[in-house]
Amino acid sequence: MYAAGAMTTVISALQRYLCGIVAIQEIRWTNVGNIKLRDATILYSCGQSHEYGVGFIVNNSILPFVKNFIPHNERICTIQLECKWGYIAVINCHAPTENKEDQSKEEFYNQLEIVYDSIPHRTRKITIGDLNAKIGKEQIFKPTIGNHSLHEISNDNGNKLISFAMSKNMTISSSHFPHKEIHKQTWISPDGHTKNQIDHVVVDEQLKHSIQDVRSYRGRMSGHSDHFLVKVKLHIKLPIKWNQKRKTSRKFELDKLKEEQIANEYRKGLKEKKVNNLNLNYQEHWTQLSKTIKGVTEEKIGIVNNKRPNNGSMKTVKKQYKKEIRQNRW
């Protein structure tokens, strides 16, 4: 994302793949902030140097359901979404590579555990990102990792990720779905020969049935990325905006205009309140004219009353109906 034109390329690719929320790593920007674009908003958490950096790209249609964004450091950030039944916290992380020292790996997983434990217990959690972990097919870990990983044996980062998932009662969903090998590969080496599955999706046990599919798409996000897009299909229900009440359209009694006296009064009212201000532009002139017409129409003609007569509740009506039937029988 630090290269010139990379942000535009990534946004256009996400629109092509119809992604609502995207977790991105190695942004390589500085500090913490957000960028509002026409169709999406970028929330990012980076350090002081152009190295690492994580964040989210959120479609503006989903932005009202984002409750908070917490930037922890240049490797971990969290976003919280409101659903119909509660909240979902998505933890975006970028783990150290396999050849890093054990101390840096332990520090990363300690920080990840602190972030995970800081989220309320009732909030469902998803850990996603470039975890640099190869997940194998060991039978002892089958309930956690499934049967459809690209690799046969887990590496050191893979064992650390499996241990973290098992300690938190989570499932690694990225190795649970059967796909072709080309749809499991998430990273390709610069020479184009080595291909690994190192980007993963880890979800809570209560949320694993909401994950419908996880697979990678070989179309690259930009010319500077060696990772493929990993798309997760998550079935959740967003809350209804109860505060946005429907505006009922008002209907005027236009049949009254058939009467000559009312029609003359209506014309007279429009002439008296005619808009004659020449300093207004066309938009202001139209707004003023629309208010004038609606006001005169409501005053001279009136609004149709669509309210139903209040004859009591349905329970009372049924009770009265049954009483009349019993009286007729006698």
Automatic annotation (TrEMBL):
Cross-referenced Pfam families: Exo_endo_phos
Source organism superkingdom: Eukaryota
SUPFAM superfamilies according to UniProt: DNase I-like (SSF56219)
Gene Ontology terms for molecular function: catalytic activity
Endonuclease/exonuclease/phosphatase domain span: 7-208
Positions of region (Disordered): 306-330
InterPro entries given in the database record: Endo/exonu/phosph_ase_sf, Endo/exonuclease/phosphatase
Name under which the protein is recorded: Craniofacial development protein 2-like
Organism: Sipha flava (yellow sugarcane aphid)
